[in-house]
Design brief:
The complex is a heterotrimer of chains A (255), B (336) and C (294). Chain A is α/β, with parallel strands linked by helices and 255 residues long. Chain A is built from 9 helices and 10 strands. In chain A, the strands form 2 sheets. Chain A has a 6-stranded mixed sheet with strand order 6-7-8-3-9-10, sandwiched between helices. A 4-stranded antiparallel sheet of chain A has the order 2-1-4-5, with helices on one face. In chain A, helix 3 (98-107) packs across helix 4. Chain A starts with 6 loop residues before the first strand and ends in a 6-residue tail after the last helix. Chain C is mostly helical and 294 residues long. Chain C has one domain (2-114, 139-277). Chain C has helices spanning 2-32, 39-57, 61-82, 92-114, 139-161, 163-173, 175-180, 185-210, 218-232, 237-257, 262-277, and strands at residues 129-132, 135-138. The chains are: A alpha/beta (255), B mainly alpha (336), C mainly alpha (294). Chains B and C meet through helix 5, helix 12, helix 14 and helix 16 of B and helix 4, helix 8, helix 9 and helix 11 of C.
């Protein structure tokens, strides 16, 4: 069981007309690992997640979850396999309270029964985990940017996932707001959850990732430890070249 | 749509709504004894529209799929009953349920491809589907009587079920409205209802948390078809002679939409309020301003949409929550 | 065989005219994401304006259509600026309902003003025709066809070359960005709707010249506009021309081959098929996503 990767892709490819958004990506994540995914804007990070979760259909290639071929499976089938995700642009269910937002996930998750009351109680627990304990009665629109991202997090956790895919849950947050999210990811890691973190915030990626995968123009550039990735000349050229090297020169590098 | 962020509905979990529902039905039965024949007919029509508006509310209000072809279920429900009673000699009561089931199957069948379409495309595809269905019914004269209409056997030896008369239809349409209300009430507080609201707000996010959005939408469309199909069946029996022009009239769809929007879409009581209010106003205009009543109705629709875009039920709920009662705040909501 | 060619010729001529009916509808949808259910009513209103100036002032429909265009442009501008703009950011059934309310107002208003009788604009030449290889070409329809093509080409030029046109297209692509560049969206939306109404007015006058109409014709024109706009791709004006021709042909050939009123179902069949298989239209791509990926 532990030998089978939680997620593996074989030659995963997606074209939009003439554009190849994800090109022949073969990768795998073993149980319990946290994999960081980085790459410049438009390098195919979100498309990659969408292909895994069934929100987009691959043009070619396959997706295996726990060794089972789930290529072309619908998103709810993927969710049923306890793979949860967040969205880069937050997608709360407006018109429901924050608590109900999470409760829907619980109702349709592995612990879901048809009954509302236990689901609402369980939702409060999840909200507590992500630090939204007191906000259950609020409308999603009343949350701050940071809290809206936490709600997105909570909705994914409501599925009690084995594999959690976080699509830029820290984008647009201040450093002080990032810390609790990192702490939460570390707690989940400690609990044995497999996590894929797509992020622009380099510091965050380096802090939590065991392995880092670099995408560039849809192609898998390399996979390695954070240290290896940072020192690889191809990565520096493709992605870090402009942004990161400058900051490093400024003496505030995160590594 | 930033203004929509403040829309938030806490789930009320008390027995009050059920008691209210029972009270409404009891009041409607008590009212029957107090009405003249003409008034009773008007109220019967109100019940019909309550049931139809509630059926539209399931797919359009809760799920957010604005079906502009909802009348198709009404139409084929009516025609199924007409054909079953005329050609097959079925009793009305059997035909009533069968019509609902037939409409539900039709909804599932056309829903599988159509519910993949979004927004305006779904709206107009359903409109096209309804118009197309009317043409099919019109062009099968051996079965449906074609454009000349079909007359149900209600008198003499051919009659399979005795005609119900004004009192009978009053109770029948009231029962259909009550069934629609009950179905909506149960769904609104259930797991299924939450799935519908989730799909309405964001279909991708709904699918990501494990909701089978395709199945949920198709089942809902079929269920709304079932309700509207039974109403169409009852209407056909009441009218005795039916024509494609009337049974598939786009105006019936539009009335359903207007009623739900005015009353409050995605709520249980909203469509009831909307149907009662609009039918009353419409009837009053018809009697007092016979020549221009449709014109005035157009004006009322425009005003209602501008001043109460979220509907009466949602407006009251939000206003009580936020303390903002001004209708001008409503106008600001969707203004450019 | 001649009958078949006659149907093709008639279908193409009719299709060009239908394209002019639909092009404004497509523009409004593409730029503002508003499906204007009152579009057909504007077409019919244009026909009545053309009829009135013909009867009262003796204006030829080819001059009268300019009167109709100006009058409907003004009406359309006001309607968008002071009514539709109030709900333009709402959910789709809000704008659908509002424009349906407008349609009721306009068609019922016309019913009261002009009665429900069928009328037509009489000219000395519209009814005459000449033969090409045994196929009869009616002069009025040919002229209307030529006009439709000329107007569509001119519209494309205006949209792509002029300041006003470019601000309309820019607003359609990204309203936020257009605003940042100093484009006043309220005014641009009103202009767009005005132009669409003006084009509907021209189309209406032509319809009145080649055939008859009454207020109840409005709904049919709206539905055809929708089919043609979807076929052509939203906001794509040449696409509308192609879509119009296709629908014209489908209807004419359907009438030639099918019996009864089956032909009426054809446009809907085409609509559903296109939505199923090619929702972004036959040419180009849609402004807004039409279909779910999953």
């Amino acid at each position: 069981m532990s030998g089978t990767p939680v997620l593996a892709t074989q030659g995963l490819t997606r074209r939009f007309g003439g554009l190849v958004a994800v090109n022949d990506v073969t990768m795998s994540v073993p149980q319990g690992q946290t994999l960081g995914v980085i790459g410049p804007n438009g390098s195919g990070k979100s498309t990659f997640i969408n292909l895994v979760t069934g929100h987009l259909r691959p043009t070619k290639g396959s997706v295996l979850i726990d060794g089972k071929d789930l290529t072309d499976a619908k998103p709810w089938v993927i969710a049923g396999a306890r793979v949860a995700r967040t969205f880069q642009i937050v997608k709360p269910f407006r018109g429901m309270s924050v608590r109900e937002n999470v409760a829907v996930g619980i109702l349709y998750g592995p612990e879901g029964t048809g009954r509302m009351a236990p689901a609402l109680r369980a939702a409060d627990e999840v909200l507590g985990e992500v630090g939204l304990g007191g906000s259950g009665d609020k409308a999603p629109g009343e949350l701050s940017v940071a809290d809206a991202r936490r709600l997105e997090f909570a909705k994914a956790l409501a599925l009690r996932p084995r594999l959690l895919m976080l699509d830029e849950v820290m984008a647009g947050l201040r450093p002080a707001e990032i810390e609790p999210s990192l702490a939460l990811i570390n707690t989940l890691k400690a609990g044995g959850m497999t996590i894929i973190v797509v992020e622009h915030v380099m510091k965050a990626i380096l802090a939590v990732s065991d392995q880092v995968m670099v995408l560039n123009q849809g192609t898998l550039l390399m996979t390695g430890s954070p240290r290896e990735v940072l020192s690889d000349p191809r990565v520096i050229e493709a992605y870090l070249g402009q942004k990161y090297a400058q900051r490093q020169a400024g003496g505030e590098a995160g590594a | 749509m930033a203004a929509e962020q403040l829309r938030y509905r806490p789930t009320v979990r008390t027995a009050t709504p059920w008691a209210l529902g029972v009270l409404l039905v009891a009041a409607a039965l008590a009212l029957q004894t107090q009405l003249y024949t003409g008034q009773a007919r008007t109220v019967t029509a109100i019940f019909m529209y309550v049931a139809l508006a509630l059926s539209w509310n399931l797919i359009g209000g809760y799920t957010g799929y604005a079906s502009f072809g909802q009348v198709v279920f009404f139409g084929i429900g009516g025609y199924f009953t007409a054909v079953a009673m005329t050609h097959l000699g079925w009793s009305f009561w059997v035909a009533l349920v069968a019509s609902g089931l037939f409409a539900a199957c039709y909804g599932a069948l056309v829903g599988i491809p159509l519910l993949r379409l979004r927004g305006h495309y779904f709206a107009i595809a359903t409109l096209g589907m309804a118009e197309g269905t009317r043409e099919i019914v019109t062009n099968l004269p051996e079965l449906t009587g074609g454009g000349g209409g079909i007359t149900l056997p209600t008198v003499g030896a051919a009659a399979t079920t005795p005609y119900l008369g004004n009192d009978g239809f009053y109770v029948l349409f009231l029962a259909l409205a009550a069934i629609a209300l009950l179905v909506t009430g149960v769904i609104s507080r259930s797991k299924f209802g939450f799935a519908l609201r989730a799909i309405h707000q964001d279909e991708d996010a709904a699918a990501a948390i494990g909701i089978n959005t395709t199945r949920t939408k198709v089942v809902t469309f079929a269920l709304s078809g079932f309700l509207a199909g039974m109403v169409g069946s009852a209407y056909a029996f009441q009218q005795v002679t039916i024509y494609p022009e009337r049974l598939f009239d786009v105006e019936i769809t539009v009335l359903m939409v207007v009623m739900v929007v005015i009353g409050g879409s995605g709520t249980v009581i909203g469509p009831v309020i909307g149907a009662v209010a609009l039918q009353f106003v419409s009837e009053w205009l018809r009697q007092n301003y016979t020549d221009i009543h449709t014109l005035l109705l157009g004006g009322i629709i425009i005003l209602a949409v501008i001043l109460l875009p979220q509907g009466l039920a949602n407006y009251v709920r939000e206003a009580r929550r936020t303390g903002e009662y001004s209708l001008l705040a409503n106008v600001r909501r969707y203004r450019l | 065989m001649t009958g078949f060619l006659q149907a093709v010729a008639y279908g193409l001529l009719q299709g060009g005219l239908l394209a002019l009916v639909a092009v404004g509808f497509s523009l409004v949808w593409g730029v503002m994401n508003v499906v204007n259910l009152s579009h057909g009513a504007f077409v019919v209103l244009g026909a009545y304006v053309g009829l009135l100036v013909n009867q009262r002032l003796g204006l030829d429909p080819f001059l009268g259509m300019f009167v109709a265009a100006v009058a409907l442009f003004a009406l359309g501008y006001v309607v968008q600026r002071f009514v539709i703009n109030l709900v333009v950011n709402g959910p789709i059934f809000i704008t659908l309902l509002l424009t349906f309310g407008l349609e009721l107002l306009l068609t019922q208003g016309m019913n009261i003003a002009f009665t429900a009788n069928y009328q037509g604009i009489q000219t000395t030449y519209a009814g005459t025709s000449f033969a090409v290889a045994g196929v009869q070409i009616p002069v009025g329809r040919l002229l209307a066809f030529v006009l439709s093509v000329v107007v569509t080409v001119a519209l494309v030029a205006v949209m792509n070359r002029t300041r006003v046109g470019m601000s309309i297209m820019a607003t359609g692509m990204d309203r936020g960005a257009a605003r940042l560049m100093g484009i006043r969206a309220r005014h641009v939306y009103a202009l767009t709707f005005g132009i669409a109404a003006g084009l509907a007015g021209m189309a209406g006058t032509m319809i009145g010249m080649v055939g008859t109409f009454n207020p109840a014709s409005a709904g049919g024109f709206t539905l055809l506009s929708f089919v043609i706009a979807v076929l052509g791709g939203l906001g794509n004006m040449y696409g509308a021309l192609a879509g119009g021709m296709l629908i014209g042909l489908v209807q004419a050939l359907g009438g030639y081959f099918l019996s009864g009123t089956w032909v009426n179902a054809l446009a809907f069949l085409v609509l559903i098929l296109v939505l199923m298989f090619r929702p972004s239209g036959l040419v180009g791509k849609a402004f807004y996503s039409a279909r779910l990926e999953v």
